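Sequence, please.
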């Protein structure tokens, strides 16, 4: 497996029509750029997409990794949900490689697991 594409994207909640409502025009340039980015990701035909986000398990002393069988996300109070299939095998390989090199890696079974473990 090798890296075939990478991208960096803003993700303001206003892009979600149920949230942005009358403000969608303010983020139209971002929406168009994200559509172009999406087209480029699809064209690269990746086996797996790795998403790095500050909204998941974040630790000061280790890389937090989430690789469950399914990932579900939603904006509570808005009509928006998404579900993606996770790549558990890749997650396990990343954890093993990190630990073998002495880099601290914590694997979590869900987005909420790190919150309950460290609250």
């Amino acid at each position: 497996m090798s890296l075939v594409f990478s991208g960096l994207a803003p993700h303001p909640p206003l892009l979600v029509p149920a949230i942005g409502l009358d403000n969608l025009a303010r983020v139209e340039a971002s929406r168009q750029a994200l559509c172009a980015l999406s087209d480029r990701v699809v064209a690269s035909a990746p086996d797996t997409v790795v998403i790095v986000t500050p909204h998941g398990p974040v630790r000061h002393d280790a890389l937090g990794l989430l690789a469950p069988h399914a990932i579900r996300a939603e904006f509570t109070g808005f009509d928006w949900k998404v579900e993606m299939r996770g790549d558990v095998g890749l997650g396990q390989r990343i954890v093993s490689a990190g630990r073998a090199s002495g880099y601290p890696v914590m694997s979590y079974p869900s987005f909420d697991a790190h919150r309950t473990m460290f609250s």
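Strands lie at 63-66, 70-74, 81-85, 105-108.
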